[in-house]
């Protein structure tokens, strides 16, 4: 699993190596402090009986359900559900259309829920008569169980990418939800690589196209044609070298949710902290150049919900798609592993012309990760694209789809209109 980006410095990795060498007595590892624990180190993965998602939803007065579904390859996934509005008096109302959310990289269902009913789309959809479900990707804090593997001890547990999420997890999730609700199809809302996973599903499992009534793709990472910015080149080059380093150290669960680390970052990035400007510079260099839609007072709270952990291979897959610009599975740079995963040594490409379900593509002009140029090419490959929609705000960036101050008026109301149109 090696990505190549010529000419990009990786001094950050040398710094980590030096700090780890200074702590080589085993009592402290700076890499583990920043990235995550080694598999088998014996540090338990904590899971709360009352999830943060449930606390968020219930505190806003909405009903909440937790469901678990097992994928074909044994991963046990947690789904969160808001079955109806808090304003609905009868829980036995006629059937509601189903909306399924899929979060982006390193996130969980929490990122769609923490701002409340006046800002977050799941509550708005529940109030509009939808049965709302939120999926959690394998490997994040809510979905770390398996029928036979132990996420704390078995490196094999973590050997998955977006490919498995699209091929195994989304089909199992869709089938479970449709069976539970007695519906024939659902609306799918994916942010960033959450949407990418649905493109993989539609390409590799075309029988599921009929089960998606409308796919609302919010800044989906599929094809990348735009010129990469200098900060992205620096970050990607350092990340690629760091990935090789941490895999060698058996650190496979990257950026899990850790309260001490969230509080540490929250203190550095809070309003009034002299270091906040560094946090904002780093963030805007990755997701977009302008922060007019981001309320900086949210940062400590946001960092208590994000990141929520994932596999190093899944993050590597996202980086590969971005670095190469092509839409294909993760290349493990190992013929045996590729053969085991894809039944061929050469990594195939995803054929999105097989995606027959309706897809609406949404982008912001301030997004430096997914641009209008990228989505125009994606749209040209899709047989049933229903339109490409620019957010009507000059500098709307990648993260604003989740936490933009005016996202309700700029994006969410339009999404609900599109969904109602496709009922």
Distance separating the two termini = 43 Å
What is the CATH topology assignment of the domain at 45-223 and 307-421?
Rossmann fold
Q: How would the global form be characterised?
A: globular
Alpha plus pi helix count: 15
E-strand count = 11
N-to-C SSE string, H for helix and E for strand: HHHEEEHEEHEHEHEHHHEHHEHEHH
What is the CATH homology-level superfamily of the domain at 45-223 and 307-421? Alpha/Beta hydrolase fold, catalytic domain
Rounded radius of gyration (Å): 21 Å
Question: Mind telling me the CATH class of the domain at 45-223 and 307-421?
Answer: Alpha Beta
CATH architecture of the domain at 45-223 and 307-421: 3-Layer(aba) Sandwich
Largest sheet: 9 strands, mixed
Could you list the spans in which at least 5 consecutive residues all have pLDDT below 50?
1-19, 21-27
Q: Indicate the structural class.
A: alpha/beta
- Write down the overall mean pLDDT: 90
Residue share in β-strands? 5-15%
Helical fraction equals 25-40%
Note down, in words, how this protein is organized.
The N and C termini lie far apart (43 Å). Residues 1-19 and 21-27 have low confidence and may be disordered. It is globular, with a radius of gyration of 21 Å. The chain has a domain at 45-223 and 307-421: Rossmann fold (3-Layer(aba) Sandwich). Strands 1, 2, 3, 4, 5, 6, 7, 10 and 11 form a nine-stranded mixed β-sheet that branches. A two-stranded antiparallel ribbon has the order 8-9. With 423 residues, the protein is an alpha/beta fold. The chain has helices at residues 11-22, 30-34, 52-59, 121-127, 162-181, 193-204, 230-248, 259-269, 276-287, 299-305, 312-324, 335-342, 372-381, 400-403, 407-421, and strands spanning 65-70, 75-82, 98-102, 131-135, 145-146, 186-191, 212-218, 253-254, 310-311, 359-363, 385-390.
């Amino acid at each position: 699993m090696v990505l190549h980006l010529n000419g990009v410095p990786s001094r950050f990795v040398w710094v980590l190596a030096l700090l780890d060498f200074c702590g080589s007595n085993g009592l402290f590892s700076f890499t583990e402090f920043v990235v995550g624990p080694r598999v088998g180190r014996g540090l338990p993965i904590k899971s709360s009986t009352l999830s943060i998602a449930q606390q968020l939803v219930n505190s806003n007065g909405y009903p909440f359900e937790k469901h678990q579904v097992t994928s074909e390859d044994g991963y046990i996934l947690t789904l969160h559900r808001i079955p109806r509005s808090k304003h609905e008096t009868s829980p036995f109302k006629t059937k509601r259309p189903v909306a399924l959310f899929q979060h982006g990289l390193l996130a969980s269902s929490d990122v769609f829920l923490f701002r409340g009913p006046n800002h977050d789309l799941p509550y708005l959809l529940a109030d509009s008569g939808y049965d709302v479900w939120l999926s959690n990707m394998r490997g994040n804090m809510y979905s770390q169980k398996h029928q036979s593997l132990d996420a704390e001890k078995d490196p094999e547990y973590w050997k998955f990418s977006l490919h498995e999420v699209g091929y195994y997890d989304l089909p199992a999730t869709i089938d479970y939800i449709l069976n539970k609700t007695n519906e024939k199809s659902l609306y799918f809302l994916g942010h960033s690589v959450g949407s990418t996973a649905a493109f993989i599903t539609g390409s590799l499992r075309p029988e599921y196209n009929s089960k998606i009534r409308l796919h609302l793709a919010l800044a989906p990472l599929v094809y990348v044609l735009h010129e990469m910015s200098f900060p992205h080149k620096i970050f990607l080059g350092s990340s690629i070298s760091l990935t090789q380093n941490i895999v060698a150290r058996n650190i496979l669960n990257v950026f899990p949710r850790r309260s001490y680390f969230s509080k540490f970052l929250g203190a550095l990035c809070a309003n009034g902290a002299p270091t906040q400007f560094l946090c904002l510079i780093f963030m805007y260099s990755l997701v977009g150049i302008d922060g007019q839609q981001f309320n900086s007072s949210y940062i400590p709270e946001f960092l208590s919900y994000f990141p929520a952990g994932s596999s190093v291979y899944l993050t590597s897959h996202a980086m590969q798609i971005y670095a190469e610009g092509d839409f294909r599975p993760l290349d493990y740079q190992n013929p045996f592993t590729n053969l085991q995963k894809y039944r061929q040594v050469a990594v195939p490409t995803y054929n999105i012309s097989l995606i027959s379900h309706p897809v609406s593509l949404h982008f912001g002009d301030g997004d430096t990760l997914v641009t209008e140029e990228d989505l125009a090419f994606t749209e040209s490959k899709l047989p049933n694209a229903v339109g490409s929609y620019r957010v009507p705000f000059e500098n709307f960036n990648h993260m604003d789809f989740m936490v933009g101050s005016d996202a309700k008026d700029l994006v969410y109301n339009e999404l609900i209109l599109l969904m109602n149109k496709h009922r």
